[in-house]
Amino acid sequence: MSEMDLVRLNFNPQSLWALNVIIGLVMFGVALDLRPADFRMLVRAPKAVLIGMLGQFVLLPAFSFLLVLAIRPAPSIALGMLLVAACPGGNISNFLTHYARGNTALSVTMTAFSTAAAVVMTPLNLALWGHLNPATAPILKAVALDPLDLLLAVLLLLGLPMAAGMWVGQRWPAFVARAHRPVKRASLVIFGLFVLGALAANWQYFLRYVGYVVFVVFLHNGLALLTGYWAARIAGLPEVDRRAVSIEVGIQNSALGLILVFNFFDGLGGMAIVTAWWGVWHIVSGLTVATWWSRRPPAPVAAAT
């Protein structure tokens, strides 16, 4: 066992609850601009959702497996990469898609669908790709997710805040017009503070193992963002959908990943550090990409004839 496998991160379960509350508040702000017609459009044209799910649960795990074979990181790091790739999309993706002028309704729908599908797909992908890699197979254990826990997560983090935000947006449109910009700025500040807090809590480990994980996570996250964007582009989706799919595939639910690491792998150092750093880095990269896109309005979607 390597030195990194002996590391135990400063993992505070209360911090995950705090993040969940923050995500719920941000989702409320994002939903202020949503209308039921946005979701009816997706029901009539489900192609974008299917492409997003394909990128999330088929392409990203497969490409992550190839990346692991190519760069050959330590086994615990490799298994952490495969675990992150097997997780569903993170709720932060909804805010980032909104900020990037992407299809927010598509992002919310993909997050909800991928979280529900994770009951089966996350353990399946982790078992499949983890067993296929001779380096990670010896440390792989069976992972089982509680469907009720995931259903509750969808309800609390997506359903309730989204319904409340849409109701307020329809009930008080004048308030929404005034609050839109302050809510967006407050969300950026909140996420920035959470990034700083996550770094500060594990600063000594970050400094010691920065060379092991930063480059790996940088490559992996970049691969995820590109996988989502090009899958959507090859499928012929409009730019607003490409941005949503790219961010959805590139922003993984690393909080779920950390819970699995500590519950099923005894906080295995390499897995925990990769998953935790991904949780920090994907916010930085996501905000960077979203800011770049926010300054470039997407081409309008042609009306169906």
List the helices and strands and how they pair.
Layout: H1 13-31, H2 36-44, H3 47-71, H4 75-86, H5 92-99, H6 104-132, H7 147-171, H8 173-201, H9 203-234, H10 239-250, H11 254-264, H12 269-294
Helix pairs in contact: 1-5, 1-7, 1-8, 3-4, 3-6, 3-9, 3-10, 4-6, 4-12, 5-6, 5-10, 5-12, 6-7, 6-10, 8-12, 9-10, 9-12, 11-12
Walk me through the structure.
There is one protein chain. By secondary structure, this protein is mainly α. It has a single domain, classed as Na+/H+ antiporter like fold. It has twelve helices and no strands.
* Number of separate domains: 1
CATH topology: Na+/H+ antiporter like fold
Q: What's the multimeric state?
A: single chain
Strand content: under 5%
Order of helices and strands: HHHHHHHHHHHH
Features:
mainly alpha, Na+/H+ antiporter like fold, 305 residues, single chain
